[in-house]
Amino acid sequence: MQKTFFCFIFLISTLGYSQKNLDQLLKRYNSGNIPYIHVDELKSYPDNIILLDAREQREYATSHLKDAIAVGYDFFNIDSTSQKIPNKNSKIVVYCSLGIRSEDVAEKLKKSGYKNVFNLYGGIFEWKNNQQKVYNLKEQETDSVHAFSKDWSKWLQKGIKVYE
């Protein structure tokens, strides 16, 4: 019986990294009101997309997508973001670590009149897991990714996990 229990726990823990479980995680925390854009789609989009990083400053400082604007989460301010992006028809992709906080920020953008707002599916973790480049504050490529917490870091499988 004990062996079966440990095999079950092992199976559950290894499944924790699958795409299906990421779908389940996002369904549990997100409303689905904001459409997702997947890494492959974002890679092929033209340069006129505006990227907004909905993580906190220390996370952004460790790594972010190229040319992303840090807007934060806890202190997100729609007024200052509107000043940076006056065109309500701009194509905007919001991301965070996994796509949970970014949905909240994206919903605030939608409510204030932005029409083309997307949430990056799986966030910067999925971006890095798909071997895409991330950059530090000096805009130099880095393998470091802020992993947010030990619990959430299991979703980051590529790169160097940073917790500070």
Which tags fit this structure?
164 residues; alpha/beta; Oxidized Rhodanese, domain 1; 7 helices; 9 strands; 17% strand; globular
Describe this structure in words.
InterPro entries: GlpE_sulfurtransferase, Rhodanese-like_dom, Rhodanese-like_dom_sf. One of its GO terms (molecular function) is transferase activity. Keywords: Transferase. Residues 45-136 form the Rhodanese domain. This is Rhodanese-related sulfurtransferase. It is globular and about 35 Å long. It has a single domain (32-162), classed as Oxidized Rhodanese, domain 1, CATH 3.40.250.10. The model is unreliable at 1-16 (pLDDT under 50). The strands form 3 sheets. It has a 5-stranded parallel sheet. Strands 6-7 form a two-stranded antiparallel sheet. It has helices at residues 2-15, 19-29, 39-43, 57-62, 78-84, 101-111, 123-129, and strands at 36-37, 50-53, 69-70, 91-95, 116-120, 134-135, 141-142, 144-146, 160-162. β6 and β7 form a beta hairpin. By secondary structure, the chain is α/β, with parallel strands linked by helices.
